[in-house]
Specification:
Layout: H1 3-40, E1 58-61, H2 71-86, E2 92-98, H3 104-124, E3 132-139, E4 151-156
Parallel strand pairs: 2-3
Antiparallel strand pairs: 1-4, 2-4
């Protein structure tokens, strides 16, 4: 082979290598821009990133391993319905909690199911589903009692 052939081969290799590098840079930059746009997008109604304001209007407590509302808890949900009726622009924000014992993934799912049970009771009582927002499940014992770790807080804001 001649020196010209070697130079041409090197030029092609460097050209392909530069193209691959530029492609990777463009991909990383594009993914970064996409991720930024997703962070600024409105969260879904399923899990909104809405900060809680003030004290909870009501708290609903659940039995260990349960996401079923009892009759007394359904009456607590009525407080939220009254507050929403008084302020037509308000939303209800539900925060599900779980204690730190047991499987973390199962606890997070249980906290979500508890918040959904409260939402279902609100909707059954006439609250528009669009006015109900969720916060991500939290692991906390609140005041320290086990019961505090199995609650859903209801805020109207």
């Amino acid at each position: 082979m001649s020196d010209n052939d070697d130079n041409e081969t090197q030029g092609v290799v460097f050209g392909v290598l530069a193209g691959v590098i530029l492609g990777v840079i463009a991909l990383v930059a594009g993914l970064g821009m996409w991720k930024s746009s997703q962070a600024g997008a409105a969260p879904t109604a399923a899990m909104a990133e809405i900060a809680p304001v003030g004290e909870a209007l009501a708290k609903v407590y659940f039995a260990v391993g349960s996401a079923v509302l009892n009759e007394a808890d359904k009456a607590v949900v009525g407080k939220a319905q009254e507050a929403l009726a008084a302020n037509p622009q308000a939303i209800v924000l539900l925060s599900g909690f779980h204690d730190p014992s047991g499987d973390a993934a199962r606890n997070a799912q249980l906290a979500k199911e508890r918040a959904e049970a409260v939402r279902d009771a609100l909707v059954a009582g006439g609250v528009a589903v669009e006015r109900v927002k969720f916060r991500k499940p939290e692991s906390t014992l609140g005041s320290g009692s086990d019961e505090e770790g199995r609650r859903v807080e209801i805020r109207v804001q």
